[in-house]
């Protein structure tokens, strides 16, 4: 019963994360959800799920922060290839 509930909660959480969040927020939430699911599968209790969520969330946060580039914009060249470069001055 607990495993089924955890899977449903993880699925609902994943849908919520997919929209309107920054990359760091998405990777943090995805890590926490995955960690909780893994902790539940391994330990089968609430404590294992909580520890998995904490570890997964921390890992997801570090991963998200490492991929974040401030003051960079995504551009597309004439052939449709995307690339990143510094944003123009005074760009918000």
UniProtKB/TrEMBL annotation:
Keywords: Signal. The keyword Signal applies. Residues 1-20 form the signal peptide. This is Glycine zipper domain-containing protein.
